Amino acid sequence: MPGRDDTPILKTSHLLGIEGISVGEITALLDLADDYVTLGRSAEKKLGLLKGRTLINLFFEASTRTQSSFELAGKRLGADVLNMSVKTSSVSKGETLIDTATTLNAMRPDILVVRHQDSGAAELLSRKLDCCVVNAGDGSHEHPTQALLDALTIRRRRGGFEGLIVTICGDVLHSRVARSNIVLLSKMGARVRIAAPRTLLPADADRLGVEIFTDMRAALAGADIVMMLRLQQERMAGAFVPSTREYFRFYGLDREKLKLAKPGAFVMHPGPMNRGVEIDSTVADDIEVSVIQEQVEMGVAIRMAVLDALSRGLAAGGRNAP
Prior knowledge:
Layout: H1 23-40, E1 54-59, H2 65-76, E2 80-85, H3 97-107, E3 111-116, H4 121-128, E4 132-138, H5 144-158, E5 165-169, H6 176-187, E6 191-195, E7 211-213, H7 216-220, E8 225-228, H8 244-251, H9 255-258, E9 266-268, H10 281-284, H11 292-315
Parallel strand pairs: 1-2, 1-3, 3-4, 5-6, 5-8, 6-7, 8-9
C-alpha cells in the first residue's frame, strides 16, 4: 500500500492532456496506479493523503464512470469532495465560464476536475484558477485520464507497449478518447491503427502518425488489442452514417470480425456502450476477450494516482499550499 511520498511525478500543476506529459511521467503514473489497484482490492481502501484538501468535480456534460470514479478516488485519498451540478448552478442561467472560474476561485479548492463540451475549456480554467486542474474531457480534444486507465489495463495484461498493434475503431472524428490514446500509445511504442468510415475520420488524420483504414476487417488483421469507440450521435449535425444498422454491419464488432485479430486479442471500450451499434453484446460481455469492466476498476486507480501526483505539488508549497 502506498504511503505519503512527495517525490514529484508531474512537471506541471495540471493534467490537461497527454500531449503535455512525457514517457517518464506516464510510466510513473502507471507505476503509482498499480499500487492503488492493490489498495482497491484490500479490505481497507482509505488513506489520508488528501486530508484537508478540497476536490471539486465540475461536469458540464453527463458522466457516470468518470465523475463517480473521481469522486471515489478523492474520498479514498481523504479529500473533501464536492460534485457541482451544472443544471442547478448559475451556468444554467447564463453565467460565463470565466465568471464560474472566478466563483470557484473564491471557494479556494485545491483540485478542480472539469468536463466541458468545448475544446480548450480546461486549459482556460487552468489559467484563471489558483488550483490544480484536471481535464476530464474537453469537446473532441482530449480525455487524458481515460487514455491513462486504458494504458494501465494494457500494461497489466501485456507487460508493456512496444510493438503492440492497437486498432481503434469507430467514431474517431468526435472522440477525445481516441486522440488521447493515439498520443499516449504512440509515445509508448505501440503501433496504432484507426478504422472508420471516411465521414468519421478527422481531417488531420494523416498527421496523427497512425495507420488509417476505412475497411475495419483489414484494420483488425493481426491486431493485439481492439478498442471500440461509441458512435457520438449527440455531436453530429447531419448524416454521418446511413443508419445504425448499416454502421454495425461494416464497423460494429462481432465475433466474426474479432476472429481476424491476433489469437488472444482483447477488446476495450471506454463506455457507455451502444450495444448493437458499435459492439455486439456477445463480445462485450465475454470475460474471455472483453476487459471493459477491468477498465472501470483501473479508472479509480489511475485517478487516485493523478490526484496523488498533483497533491505532491501542493505539499511542496505549490498552489494553495497552507
